[in-house]
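FW: tagging you since you asked about this chain on Friday. Here's the raw sequence from the shared folder, copied in full. Didn't touch anything.
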Amino acid sequence: HDDLEDLTTETANSRQRQLVMLKGLLVLASVLLIHMFVAAVYHFCTTGWSFSDVLYFEFVRTASVGFGDIIPEDEFTLAGAILKNLLINIPGQIVTFAMFVRVLPLIS
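HL: got it, structure written out here
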């Protein structure tokens, strides 16, 4: 009887941990998407690019791929992109990496 109770408690704790991590990932993904959308609106207003080009630019920049096919030409937008990378994107990617490292054992 005790073995069954221990197994039930262990399963419940495992499910609770997975639920907490899933909620954390959902919050992280939501913040990332909101951040990309706000940045896209900013670049849409300052560059004159189409919104699809701006979303593509933000995705490539956030993913740190940097194809270089779309580059801001005016200094204000370029400076904003560089500062945003240094102050927001790089720390955000460190936090994202840390979250994935913590979640990876739960997924596998």
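FW: The helical segments are 2-47, 51-62, 75-107.
HL: agreed, and The chain has a mean pLDDT of 76.
FW: great, closing this out.
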